[in-house]
Amino acid sequence: MQTRVAGPAEMHTFAQDFIEKLDRAADSATVVGLSGELGAGKTTFAQAAAKALGVTDTVNSPTFVIEKIYSLEGSPPAGGWQRLVHIDAYRLKNGDELKHLGWDELLADPSNLILVEWPEHVEGAIPQNAHRIRIEIGEGEHRTVSSSRAQRSDPE
Ligand SMILES: Nc1ncnc2c1ncn2[C@@H]1O[C@H](COP(=O)(O)OP(=O)(O)OP(=O)(O)O)[C@@H](O)[C@H]1O
Ligand SMILES: [Mg+2]
């Protein structure tokens, strides 16, 4: 699905709507990959998502720390997640580098909602059932946002 957003405020609205409609994965963390070039608005999306989830802390770009974890326990969202994990994989070279950040444990826990900027840097670590957001820069503050919801995974 493609949506055109005219500026940061509309990006916030888009992200809030996306989070409200997001299904929680049953057997693992819910993962959302955020793609788009430098300055496209991935962190802006994550900030809006955090707000929609009731996070009151300031959400900064985790480019240098790679990973930030926010507790949602004070304000459990409709999706039922207990933690928001915001990862910026820009400085990582491959999926193995995520393992050093406790990735397997984060991924195994259905109470985690994980947003990953630059998922293509760690593609090997991104599960098949991840949701995808791609932000393309247009003129001025215009962005085209493509979103694909992961299929509900059928039991094998
Ligand atoms: N429609 C829009 N949606 C999102 N951000 C916008 C939009 N229009 C302008 N901006 C501005 O563009 C910038 C986007 O920065 P942001 O840090 O969110 O990008 P990013 O994709 O996370 O970049 P990086 O790859 O460096 O992490 C912000 O300054 C934001 O205000
Ligand atoms: Mg960013």
Structure at a glance:
23% of the residues lie in helices and 26% in strands. With 156 residues, it is of the alpha/beta class. The chain is globular and about 40 Å long.
List keywords for this structure.
Rossmann fold, seven-stranded mixed beta sheet, binds adenosine-5'-triphosphate, binds magnesium ion
Explain how this protein is built.
This protein has 156 residues and is of the alpha/beta class. It has one domain: P-loop containing nucleotide triphosphate hydrolases (Rossmann fold). The protein is 23% helix and 26% strand. The chain is built from 4 helices and 7 strands. It has helices at 8-21, 42-52, 95-99, 103-108; strands at 2-5, 30-35, 67-71, 83-88, 112-117, 131-137, 143-148. Strands 1-7-6-2-5-4-3 form a 7-stranded mixed β-sheet. A hairpin with a 5-residue loop joins strand 6 and strand 7 (143-148). It is globular and about 40 Å long. The structure holds adenosine-5'-triphosphate and magnesium ion. Magnesium ion binds next to helix 2.
